[in-house]
């Protein structure tokens, strides 16, 4: 009898552990695929609230109901749900199609991670606004060129308008001569501009060999860096991702950028807070963006293609040493 | 609504009501970006969508209403189709208001696939938005085809495109406005056709679940959106050719250069939209460079033929200055300055630094507001003044124009400055690194308020004449 009981324990215990491990893995996977785009556990609010120790703030029944059918709870005017919608800029959590079992697995995962996250790493204080940066080239050159050419146009219009104060007949043939000269010089200027700028187009050739390739997957509302391609949301949580992207100055880096749901854009801002480069993140396509990092520092990535309510909050960063 | 001419007065009334409301939405958006009205931030993206579709739609129909009026001088557009255009546009606007205010639809005016189907708004609101565009697109397509039919009843296609001028003949005489309207409407039909295909693919996905190709959809949507906006501008330019000679006391006739120029536009305008896809690196490279060439090429006929021709017309002329002629000349200047901003941004290597920053709304607001709007409201005033023969105070008109110019260019300058500083467009709030964008937004809202005041005074000045024109049965 004792032997049989012992045998049962020996057989069942690993099975139970295996089942628990499966649930934990499922919770982690679901969290990465469905929740991580808008929430953190212990790293502060993003699009939605920080979920650290969320089980201490709400009942399990409420959480399961909200995770499985947030749209129904908002439609039913659940007081807490409505308060959350108001607090987070009326960005409503979508129905993610999760079952009750899924919701419990996600909650278990959040609970486990919450316990491991030290209290000191909980919500950072809001950052103070930066001062206005210096306008640097090439943007400063572009802006100056625009201002000068606009002032010239305005001056010509003003001169023509003022000329009507002293009316006279105009020598049309002479004016057509001026038009020919204007046409000729305009065409030459545009062809020269085309010839000077076309070689600087940012498109990567097939033969280009970067020092490093970084895969970027964009989805509402996060960027994910990885060493391997991520082509769908189902890859998230399965393939390893890069939590902190660190690059070396002087490296030629190729970003292979794709979108997992809608169009986004990978807008790379340098340490001086000006756009260095960008490319679109389009579903079903991979854009190859080559960047040679010449300046060390903290770079910010912003989404530059409107992608719904959390668009302006969709960002990440990378460091160049 | 007796005829096409009196329908133009209805288009004016619609514009006088809707434009200030849409300006207020713009001021609301800049105020939210400035950090004010925080409690209303949740409405930013739905209002951005309404502001975009509304502005494009209002100025498209306003310019169409004007050219229908111009055409009625030479040919006979159908008054029944004119009525359909008004009813269809109002129905489309009603659907648009329903999806935005009841469904909080916020897919953006350019409804970039697949966002309308994947936002936080309910599916019914996306379907209502697409239905709104379908009603508007179908109505405008029928309207465009009717105007082309009216032109075809008097001129064959080669004649309407002025090809007989190329072989040295100037009979039948073709008013430049007819040439430009023909070119614009042909391209408009092509653009609206692309819009119909894009909408059909959306409906297909809603009904069958079959997804479309994101790059193909992007090409269709930008071909439709860019071309429709571009053509509205050209319709405004047709008004200059028609009305400016009246004030300058000099003729402005079609000749070989004008014909070559506007026939070239018909070709160029179909390829310029590629510049919207520069940052889609998977688009075939040849199309990217074609986009830059077509964008540069579109500047030549505009600057060398139309603007040079208009300035030559005005130079040392016995000009009769009033609100109409002042706004028409200012409109050409706005077109030129906005065009410079656009030309700079249409350079691929520059677009890498400016794409989807506030530089983009900077240049399109310049040629839409200080360009197209000035041309159309100048024409509105001209029509009302001609019908009512009311005494004019030119000094007051100059003051009004100054108010509009200061408001508009102060507002644009904040966009240009923000764009140069890489502040993104379509952001409800700025990250702390770009907090200076909020300061520019606040200043821009103040200048937009000044512009709104100027426009309100313009409506009072033109409205008096509009009432007389309505009662005299224009």
Verbal overview:
The complex is a heterodimer of chains A (321) and B (474). Chain A has 321 residues and is of the alpha+beta class. Chain A has 3 domains: 18-121, Cytochrome c-like domain (Cytochrome Bc1 Complex, Chain D, domain 2); 139-163 and 175-200; 212-320, Sandwich (Immunoglobulin-like). Chain A has 8 helices and 9 strands. In chain A, helix 1 crosses helix 6 (100-116) and helix 3 crosses helix 6 (100-116). The longest helix of chain A has 34 residues, at 2-35. Chain A is elongated, with a radius of gyration of 29 Å. The mean pLDDT of chain A is 88. Chain B is mainly α and 474 residues long. Chain B contains 16 helices and no strands. In chain B, helix 7 (176-208) packs parallel to helix 9. Chain B starts with a helix and ends with a helix.
List keywords for this structure.
heterodimer, A: alpha+beta, Cytochrome Bc1 Complex, Chain D, domain 2, Immunoglobulin-like, 3 domains, four-stranded mixed β-sheet, 8 helices, 9 strands, elongated, B: 474 residues, mainly alpha, Cytochrome C Oxidase, Chain A
N- to C-terminal distance of chain A: 67 Å
- Examine the secondary-structure arrangement and name the CATH architecture of the largest domain in chain A: Sandwich
Beta content of chain B: under 5%
How is the quaternary structure best described? heterodimer
What is the number of E strands of chain A? 9
Number of domains of chain B: 1
**In DSSP terms, counting alpha (H) and pi (I) runs of 4 or more, how many helices of chain B?**
16
Anisotropy-based shape of chain B: globular
Alpha carbon gap, first and last residue of chain B: 11 Å
């Amino acid at each position: 009898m004792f032997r049989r009981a012992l045998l049962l324990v020996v057989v069942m215990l690993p099975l139970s552990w295996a089942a628990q491990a499966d649930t934990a893995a499922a919770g982690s996977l679901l969290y990465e695929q469905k929740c991580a785009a808008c929430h953190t556990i212990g790293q502060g609010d993003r699009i939605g609230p920080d979920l650290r120790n969320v089980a201490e703030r709400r009942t399990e029944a409420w959480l399961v109901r909200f995770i499985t059918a947030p749209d129904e709870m908002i439609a039913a005017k659940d007081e807490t749900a409505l308060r959350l919608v108001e607090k987070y800029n009326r960005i409503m959590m979508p129905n993610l199609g999760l079952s009750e079992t899924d919701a419990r697995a996600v909650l278990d995962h959040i609970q486990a991670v919450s316990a491991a996250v030290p209290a000191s790493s909980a919500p950072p204080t809001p950052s103070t606004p930066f001062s206005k940066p210096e306008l640097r080239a090439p943007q400063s050159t572009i802006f100056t060129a625009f201002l000068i050419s606009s002032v010239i146009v305005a001056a010509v219009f003003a001169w023509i308008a003022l000329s009507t104060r002293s009316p006279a007949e105009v020598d049309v043939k002479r004016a057509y001569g001026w038009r020919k000269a204007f046409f000729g010089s305009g065409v030459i200027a545009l062809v020269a501009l085309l010839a000077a700028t076309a070689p600087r187009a940012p498109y990567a050739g097939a033969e280009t060999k970067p020092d490093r390739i970084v895969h970027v997957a964009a989805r509402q509302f996060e960027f994910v860096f990885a060493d391997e391609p991520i082509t769908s949301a189902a890859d998230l949580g399965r393939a390893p991702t890069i939590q902190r992207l660190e690059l070396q100055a002087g490296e030629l880096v190729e970003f292979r950028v794709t979108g997992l749901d809608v169009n986004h854009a990978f807008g790379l801002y340098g340490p001086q807070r000006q756009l260095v480069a960008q490319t679109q993140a389009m579903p079903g396509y991979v854009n190859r963006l080559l960047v040679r990092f010449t300046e060390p520092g903290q770079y910010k990535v912003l989404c530059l293609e409107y992608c719904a309510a959390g668009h302006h909050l969709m960002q990440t960063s990378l460091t160049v040493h | 609504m007796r005829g096409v001419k009196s329908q133009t007065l209805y288009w004016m009334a619609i514009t006088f009501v809707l434009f200030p409301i849409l300006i207020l939405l713009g001021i609301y958006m800049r105020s939210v970006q400035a950090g004010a009205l925080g409690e209303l931030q949740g409405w930013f993206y739905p209002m951005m969508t309404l502001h975009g579709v509304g502005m494009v739609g209002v100025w498209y129909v306003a310019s169409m209403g004007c050219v229908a009026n111009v055409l009625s001088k030479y040919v006979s557009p159908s008054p029944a189709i004119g009525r359909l255009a008004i009813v269809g546009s109002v129905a489309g606007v009603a659907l648009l208001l329903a999806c935005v205010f009841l469904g909080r639809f916020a897919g953006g005016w350019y409804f970039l696939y697949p966002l309308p189907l994947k936002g936080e708004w309910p599916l019914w609101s996306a379907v209502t938005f697409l239905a709104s565009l379908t009603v508007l697109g179908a109505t405008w397509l029928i309207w465009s085809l009717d105007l082309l039919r009216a032109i075809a009843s008097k001129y064959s296609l080669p004649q309407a495109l002025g090809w007989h001028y190329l072989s040295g003949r100037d009979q039948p005489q073709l008013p430049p406005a007819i040439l430009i309207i023909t070119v614009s409407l042909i391209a408009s039909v092509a653009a609206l056709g692309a819009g119909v295909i894009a909408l059909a693919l959306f409906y297909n996905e809603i009904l069958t679940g079959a997804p479309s190709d994101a790059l193909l959809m992007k090409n269709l949507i930008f071909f439709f959106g860019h071309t429709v906006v571009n053509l509205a501008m050209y319709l405004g330019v047709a008004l200059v050719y028609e009305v400016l000679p009246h004030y300058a006391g000099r003729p402005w006739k079609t000749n070989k250069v004008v014909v070559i120029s506007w026939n070239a536009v018909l070709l160029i305008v179909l390829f310029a939209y590629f510049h919207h896809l520069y940052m889609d690196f998977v688009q075939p490279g040849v199309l990217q460079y074609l986009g830059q060439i077509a964008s540069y090429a579109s500047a030549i006929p505009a600057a060398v033929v139309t603007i040079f021709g208009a300035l030559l017309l005005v130079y040392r002329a016995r000009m009769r200055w009033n609100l109409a002629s002042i706004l028409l000349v200012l409109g050409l200047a706005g077109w030129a300055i906005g065009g410079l901003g656009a030309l700079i941004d249409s350079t691929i290597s520059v677009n890498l630094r400016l794409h989807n920053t506030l530089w983009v709304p900077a240049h399109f607001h310049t040629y839409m507001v200080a360009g197209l709007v000035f041309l159309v409201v100048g024409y509105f005033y001209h029509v009302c003044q001609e019908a009512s023969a009311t005494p004019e105070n030119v000094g007051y008109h100059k003051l009004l124009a100054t108010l509009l110019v200061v408001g508009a260019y102060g507002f644009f300058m904040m966009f240009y400055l923000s764009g140069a500083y890489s502040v993104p467009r379509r952001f409800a709030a700025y990250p702390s690194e770009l907090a200076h964008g909020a300061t520019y937004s606040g200043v821009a809202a103040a200048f937009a308020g000044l512009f709104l005041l100027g426009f309100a005074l313009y409506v009072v000045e033109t409205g008096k004449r509009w009432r007389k024109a309505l009662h005299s049965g224009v």
